[in-house]
Amino acid sequence: MKTALFIDGLDGFGGGQRYALYVAEVLNPDIFTGFYRKTFPGFQDFSIKVLGQKISPSFLGAIILMAGFNKLNLPGYDLYVFMGNLSLAAVKKEHRPSIWISFGPMRRLYLEKPGLFTGMGNTVLRKFFSTAEANISEIDLIIAISGAVKKRLLNIYGTSIKADIRVIYPPIKVEKFFWQPPEDYYLYVGRLDRKKRVDVLINTFSELKTSNLKIVGDGKLRGFVEKQSARFHNIEYLGPLSEEDLLKVYSKAIATIYIPYEEDFGLIPVESQAAGKPCIGASSGGVIESVIHKETGFLIDEPVDTGKLREAIEWMSRKRAEDMRDRCMENARRFSFERFSKELKQAIGDIGSK
Questions:
Q1: Confidence of residue 54 (pLDDT cuts 50, 70, 90)
Q2: Are residues 15 and 164 in the same domain?
């Protein structure tokens, strides 16, 4: 099946980009994206057309990219798949049958409280994005990456959604992960920014002098994390790691900690469980769909603060974490690549049978 895959951008190796890679592995599509970092692993074997390699991901950059997507006219494909929000500008009658793989409504417009200048930019962005949003009614099938995302889509777009919404969870390559006896540390993997509540994590461990934290990732708070890790003996920043090194770090942790607010899904808790390591997570968003409270991790009631996180860490002893090993690995198999491939192909087949 000849497939065109439209993706907002491939500028980092976060959960959304990894999901895009797995979609590409199943569909072998031609890819059209707003921007692409060529060092991004995994996409070298695919045909990729970049609309704006050097465009900043600011609100102005988003408007320019939507204009670029809107200009695309690509007849001759058997299937058109859209990922993200900006790529919706490419939805048109010539681009059908169509699937929108949704990570949810644009967070900066609907879920985040903007500052003065951000708010002004969002006002302009919303005006332009409304045209792309109107295209949602033309989509043949919507795939939400979690039940939380499906709920948000229905709450925000309501009757403008004409297509069925099917939840297909992002996958991981379960077989890559392995367990080793835990060493004396908890682990955070992910972007270093306030949306992930890295500041809450750091502040908690600065008070927990008897518990150790290792941090893997990169982002806006990298400087803050580096300073704090130099200041506190029990906090170690490892930087971004290769896949091989990351798997080793997962395998020896007591547990992982993942506490963003209303995360769309979150691959880190699933990867953690695949390594037999429970996850301490925030009880919101997609995390509650992958972590089973007191069976494969510990879910902290919102709002998460240093006090609640400290109690969860103290509850998650090494002994409790080791006792969860088998249940974690069993639960992680629900998110295998084989399951994902089967469900995605079934969804495509269902469109063709209508």
A1: low
A2: yes
Whether 255 and 311 map to the same domain: the answer is yes
Same domain, residue pair 277 and 326:
yes
pLDDT tens-digit map of 296-351? 999 999 999 999 999 999 999 999 999 999 999 999 999 999 999 999 999 999 98
For residue 221, the enclosing domain spans 174-335
Of 72, 84, 94, nearest to 17 by C-alpha is 84
Is the bond into 303 cis (omega within 30 degrees of 0)? yes
Q: Regarding beta strands 47-50 and 30-33, do their DSSP bridges make them parallel or antiparallel, or are they unpaired?
A: parallel
User: What residues contact residue 125 under an 8 Å CB cut-off, 6+ apart?
Assistant: 59, 62, 63, 108, 109
pTM value is 0.92
Q: Residue 127: pLDDT above 70?
A: no
CATH code for position 130: 3.40.50.2000
Distance CA 96, CA 17 (A): 24
11 and 154 together in one domain: yes
SS3 category, 27: helix
